[in-house]
Amino acid sequence: MSKLTDVPKRILIGRALRSDKLGETLLPKRIALPVFASDPLSSVAYAPGEVLLVLSIAGVSAYHFSPWIALAVVVLMFTVVASYRQNVHAYPSGGGDYEVANTNLGPKAGLTVASALLVDYVLTVAVSISSGIENLGSAIPFVVEHKVLCAVAVIALLTVLNLRGMKESGKLFAIPTYVFVVGVFIMLAWGAYRALTGDDMNAPTADLEIKPEHPGLAGFALVFLLLRAFSSGCAALTGVEAISNGVPAFRKPKSKNAATTLALMGGLAVVMFCGIIALAMNTGVRMAENPAHDLVRDGVPVGDAYVQNPVISQVAAAVFGEGTFFFILLAAATALVLFLAANTAYNGFPLLGSILAQDRWLPRQLHTRGDRLAFSNGIVLLAGAAILLVVLYGADSTKLIQLYIVGVFVSFTLSQIGMVRHWNRHLKSERKPAERRRMIRSRAINAFGASFTGLVLVVVLATKFTHGAWVALLGMVIFYGTMTAIRKHYDRVAEEIAAAEGPSDDSLRPSRVHSIVLVSKVHKPTLRALAYAKLMRSDRLEALSISVDPAETKALRDEWERRGINVPLKILDSPYREITRPIIEYVKGLRRESPRDVVSIYIPEYVVGHWYEHLLHNQSALRLKGRLLFTPGVMVTSVPYQLESSEAAKKRAKKRADWNAPGAVRRGPVARPPRETTKESTKS
C-alpha cells in the first residue's frame, strides 16, 4: 500500500527533505514580497470596485466622494504598516498578532486574535480564488458556467504547490505578481500621461447611467453609506498581518527584512489603489450592485445578459484599448495574481496553526512539518475549509467579500493594544535615554494604530453585520470554542498521566505476571511466540486457543501433545464462532480474581511485503488488539514472523534509504548526522 501511495505523492510534492535543509527554504525579500504580500497587492483588483459599488446606491453623484474614501484608506494603510513594523521588531518569532495579544493581554485575547486570523485566512483563499475565477470568466465562458468546479480545482492546485514547499512555490508565484505590479504601474503612468495631454479616455461603461436605489441621500443616511464604502475599501488591507506572522520564514536578519518587505508592500498597494480610483473617475467607470437593473443605457436597463467587468479591467480598456497586448497581459496577470493572492493565507494559516498546536490549542499534528518542510496538515485543513466556503457561496466574490475583513480588524486592534502594554512594561525597567525615546515613539505609533483600527472595526461591524459579517463572527466563535475544548482535553490528559512524586500504582511492581500466548495452529509463528514468552520469565505461562471448529481443535490438541510442548494449552469454547469476545471475557476474569496481577498477551503476527496481503492476514489480531487496549492491567505484545514476501519490502526500503520516512520531519532543524567515510572520499 505504501508503494502505491508513495509514487504519486513524490510526483505531486517531490522528494522528502531532511530537517537540516530547513535553512535552505528561507526566503529572500524578493521572494518574500510575492509570497506574503500578494494578497494586499492583488486586492487593488477588487477593492476600488467595492467602493464604487457601495457609492452607486446613491447614484453617480456620490462618486465624487471616492477620492476622500481612498485618502482615508491610505491613512489607515500607513498606520497599520507603521504599527506592524514595531511588531516584527519586538516579536520576530512568528507568532504575530497572536503572540502579541497572548503575551500582553492574556490567553483569552490571544485566542480571540487567533480565531479571527484563522477565519480571515480561510476567507482570503475563498475570496481571492472566486474573484480570480470571475476575472478569468469574462474571457472564457466555460469558467463562468462552472465557476464552483473551477474554483475548487484552483484551490487543489495551489494546495499541491504549497505542499511542495514555500520557497519552491514562492519562486513560481513571484513572476505573475511582479508582472501584475509592473503592468498596473505602466497603466497608471500611461493613463496619467494621456490625462495630462488632454487625450480622451472612456471606459466601456462610460455611456451608461446608474439608477440609484436611494436617490438624494443626505444626513445620517449619507454618512452611513460613506462609512460602508470605506469599510469595503478596507479590503485593501487584508493580508498585511501575514508578514508579522511569517517572520521566521525570512532570511537573516529576519526582523529587518520583514520590516522592509512590509514597508515596500504598503507603498506599492497605496499607489496602485489610489491610481486605479483616480483613473476610474477620469475614464467614467460605472459600477452597480445589481447591474442588470441599475445600469441603464438610453433609458433601458442592460438586462441579465450584461456582464459587469471589474474596475481594473475597465480602466485598462480605457487606457490601453480593449484587445491590445497590454490589456490582455494585464487581464491575464490580474486573474493569475488573484489566484496566487491566496498564497498569503497558505503561508500564514499553517504557521499560526503550528504555533497554536505547540501551545495545545490545536491538534499536535498541525505542529508537524511534512516531507517538504512545510506544515502540510495546516495546508490541507485550510484548503478543505476554503473549498467548503466556495461551494456554500457558489464562488460568488460579492457575497463572500461581505464576510471579509472583520477578523483582520479584530486582530489589528487587539494586537496594537497589546503592543502599547508591551512598551509600557519595558519602559518601567529601561533607563537608557535613547532607548526610552525609541520606545515612547513606538508606543505612540501603536496607540494611534489601536485607536484608528478600533474605530474602523466598529464601522465595519456596524455597516457589514447584516450583509454577512455575522457569519465571520460565528466562525470566530466556533474556532474559539473548538480550541478551548482541545486545550481542556490536552490539560486533562496531561494531568491524568503526570508522574507522581512518590510511589504510585503505575510505578509499583505488579504481584505476578500472567502470560498468555494466543494459538490457532502449531506452526513456526506460534513456536516463536512461545519461545519469546518463556524468555520473559513470567509467573504463569499458558497457551490459549478458541474452539470454533471441533475437528481443528482436536487436531491442535493432538499436535500439541505429540510435540510435547511444556506449556499448558487452554481451549475456550465459542458456540457462536466468535474469537475476540471469549478472549476478552477470559482476561477480564483473570483480572477480577487477581486485580494486582498483570496479564501479558503475546500475539503471533505475519509480516508481509505486499499491500494486498494485509487484507488476507492479521485481521483477527488487529481486532483483538483494539479491544485489549481498553482493558486495564493488560499488556499486548506482537511477535512478528517475516514471510518471504517481506524480503521484497526490505529491498524497496533499502532503495529508498536516503529518503526520510513520511512524517519523520519535525518543526525546526536538527543536527546533521556524521558523514560516513566512503571509499571515494578515502581515496581523495
TrEMBL record:
<feature type="transmembrane region" description="Helical">
    <location>
        <begin position="216"/>
        <end position="240"/>
    </location>
</feature>
<feature type="compositionally biased region" description="Low complexity">
    <location>
        <begin position="661"/>
        <end position="670"/>
    </location>
</feature>
<feature type="transmembrane region" description="Helical">
    <location>
        <begin position="261"/>
        <end position="281"/>
    </location>
</feature>
<dbReference type="InterPro" id="IPR053153">
    <property type="entry name" value="APC_K+_Transporter"/>
</dbReference>
<feature type="region of interest" description="Disordered">
    <location>
        <begin position="652"/>
        <end position="684"/>
    </location>
</feature>
<keyword id="KW-0812">Transmembrane</keyword>
<feature type="transmembrane region" description="Helical">
    <location>
        <begin position="325"/>
        <end position="352"/>
    </location>
</feature>
<feature type="transmembrane region" description="Helical">
    <location>
        <begin position="373"/>
        <end position="395"/>
    </location>
</feature>
<feature type="transmembrane region" description="Helical">
    <location>
        <begin position="173"/>
        <end position="196"/>
    </location>
</feature>
<keyword id="KW-0238">DNA-binding</keyword>
<feature type="transmembrane region" description="Helical">
    <location>
        <begin position="468"/>
        <end position="486"/>
    </location>
</feature>
<keyword id="KW-0472">Membrane</keyword>
<feature type="compositionally biased region" description="Basic and acidic residues">
    <location>
        <begin position="673"/>
        <end position="684"/>
    </location>
</feature>
<feature type="transmembrane region" description="Helical">
    <location>
        <begin position="65"/>
        <end position="84"/>
    </location>
</feature>
<dbReference type="Pfam" id="PF13520">
    <property type="entry name" value="AA_permease_2"/>
</dbReference>
<dbReference type="GO" id="GO:0003677">
    <property type="term" value="F:DNA binding"/>
</dbReference>
<protein>
    <submittedName>
        <fullName>DNA-binding protein</fullName>
    </submittedName>
</protein>
<feature type="transmembrane region" description="Helical">
    <location>
        <begin position="401"/>
        <end position="423"/>
    </location>
</feature>
<keyword id="KW-1133">Transmembrane helix</keyword>
<feature type="transmembrane region" description="Helical">
    <location>
        <begin position="139"/>
        <end position="161"/>
    </location>
</feature>
<dbReference type="GO" id="GO:0016020">
    <property type="term" value="C:membrane"/>
</dbReference>
<dbReference type="InterPro" id="IPR002293">
    <property type="entry name" value="AA/rel_permease1"/>
</dbReference>
<dbReference type="GO" id="GO:0022857">
    <property type="term" value="F:transmembrane transporter activity"/>
</dbReference>
<feature type="transmembrane region" description="Helical">
    <location>
        <begin position="444"/>
        <end position="462"/>
    </location>
</feature>
<feature type="transmembrane region" description="Helical">
    <location>
        <begin position="111"/>
        <end position="133"/>
    </location>
</feature>
